[in-house]
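BUG: 3D viewer hangs when loading the predicted structure for this chain

Environment: internal workstation, default settings.
Expected: structure renders.
Actual: progress bar stalls at 90%.

Input used:
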Amino acid sequence: MTNLLDHISNPSDLRKLNPKQLPQLAKELRAFIIDIVATKEGHLGASLGVVELTIALHYLFDTPNDLLVWDVGHQAYGHKILTERKDIFYTNRQFGGVAGFPSRNESKFDAFGVGHSSTSISAALGMAIASNLKGETEKQHIAVIGDASIASGMAFEALNHAGVSNANLLIILNDNAIGIDPSVGALKEYLTKVKTDKRLAVQNNIIKALNFDYSGPIDGHDLPTILKELERLKSVKGPKFLHVITTKGKGLQQAEEDQVTYHAPGKFDKISGERIKKEASLYTKYQDVFGKTIVELADKNDKIVGITPAMLTGSSLKLMLEKYPERTFDVGIAEQHAVTLASGIATQGLIPFCNIYSTFLQRAYDQVIHDVALQNLPVVFCLDRAGLVGEDGATHHGNFDLAYLRCIPNLIVFAPRNEIELRNILYTAQLSLKNPIAIRYPRGRGNIIDWKQPFKEIKIGKGVRLQKGNKIAILSIGTIAKNVIDALTLVKNTTCFSHYDMRFVKPLDIVLLHTIFKTHQTIITIEDGTIKGGFGSAILEFASDNNYQNKIEVLGIPDNFIEHGSVSRLQLKLGLDATSLANHFKLLI
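Structure tokens produced before the viewer hung:
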């Protein structure tokens, strides 16, 4: 039998097939995705679940002239393969290769860049309104959104607007009852009822109440049914909503049975589906240091509450959920709600630990300022995935947190140097702090085996000296200190260099800074965040305010969006790896 996928490079090739050939193509496309991800890693389950839907959309709609927006992008591998990237898909998420998410810079078929969730309806509605204004009334606009993403406030706002528009907009709900972790909330429960009681699809339908032409639910793996319904909806004017039921991980038994793990399973055997075990590490992931420590603290302090917006597994807050379910809240993909929920809890004397990925907190910036900091409520923000995160790329690098947080009054900003520091600041944060605090730490493993030391309180606003020198002072913040320490071992004349871990970006250790500036000629700041407005900028401001004339050099992430690639490869490119730093230091001696 001829392999159909071998002869398909773009949707124009796809549309030459007979509809009866499409199930075979679906089988081949699913196998292709499994084959690549098994060896190259990436997001698996979401893309396997929408293979038939992806084929049907590109078969019936005139993409890229018709505009297709994926939400969040985990499900877009099949889309990329069918849209001129099949031959280079093996580079997916690798440095210089195909991006892990749709990107307008990468392809004309990627109508909108999507790395964070719940943006598709707003974007597609905007496109549809623009088409109406330009007189392009026949153009189609499709948003594919998951059941976890549609529960977000932004998606509801867009539905509310779209329902009273005359936009030629088709929203497809990819309903598989799971995002990264299982979906949560009242809407999820409602969608579950719709699947089992079809009368709800006709009567008392939430989507119909918002003025959408609702159809479904239909089987998202039944190609003839999908094709028939999409063909019908092409001729329906105004806002339309198609409810599609799929199985995340469809076609790989392990991915269907363990949907959380096989969202992004790492390397696995493409035949058996069994994950390939990595060599056991002696070191612990920072997320697990957080997860284990907060449980230990919660054992002794019943005021501690854990909150996360749909990142139970990723943040390791699931460890607290397992032991203290009544004090642990997964609010779904709702970062704004998570922050203000935490502030409400804090008003009542409890201690909310709000764990949000660094880039996801950007979506709740107003709430951090208005609902937490302005009222000086002692919310503990635990910002996982700070700094460079690797293969997820520009949408997920936590480069901006130091800059966007340090300008907020009342907010303490801390970056632990290692796992022990993270453990101790978590302990300190629940000792009746009077201010909110943001604790930012990276993705991945630390470098201390025996990190579970007795708790020690950290004095707020105090840095520490790690190495004493007489000429050049290196000021680092957070885990980038490890690269500095390694770099200094490569420099022979280390007596020139002092190394300080400032720990707090806010408040700065003013006493220590005066001492540093009075005893060193040159000051170098190093951070794994943007140099525009970040830690280095804070040191420059201190020097200006106090009329210091020392030479100051700011090292960190430049004023660019950083592409995807391994953290080590990106650090090398940016000159933040130990060898590059050592070479730089040698030039200053």
